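Friendly challenge for the regulars: who can give me the structure tokens for this chain first? No prize, just bragging rights.
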Amino acid sequence: MMEEKETIVTPEGLRKLEEELEHLKTVRRKEVAERIKQAKEFGDLMENSEYEDAKNEQAFIEGRIQALEQMLRNVKVIDNNDKRVDRVSVGCTVRLRDEETREETAYTIVGSPEADPSRDLISNESPVGRALLGRRKGEVVDVEAPGGKLKYTVLQIKV
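First reply, four minutes later:
Bragging rights claimed.
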């Protein structure tokens, strides 16, 4: 049997995953079942696009429920209240300086389910996230990113 991957989340991320699972099980399942029931009443299922759409949505919802249940079975909640911040770890916010442009930016390192680059939440599995883990303030970090090589200096680490 294949070993299931550990899902790293913050307490907030755990709450969101649990809420999404509950919503899918209690609300979305019922909604799509009702759509399927209504579509069946339209007659011939072979040429019924509403029925086909509803069945596809049902399959997506069930797949997402399975994925969420698997994540929650292997969840590891990161609690930064008792962490030292001498090294970058999941849950930390890291202020960086791009050594080429001299621009400063800050990222919070999170588990992949919580990643949202538009909100500066980067996955611990992303190229930048992986390169930063374990680093200390003042260290220069080389990152092999899809867009090319990046070089950052770690200016600050905080929780």
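The chain has three helices and seven strands. Residues 53 and 130 are 39 Å apart (CA to CA). Your move, everyone else.
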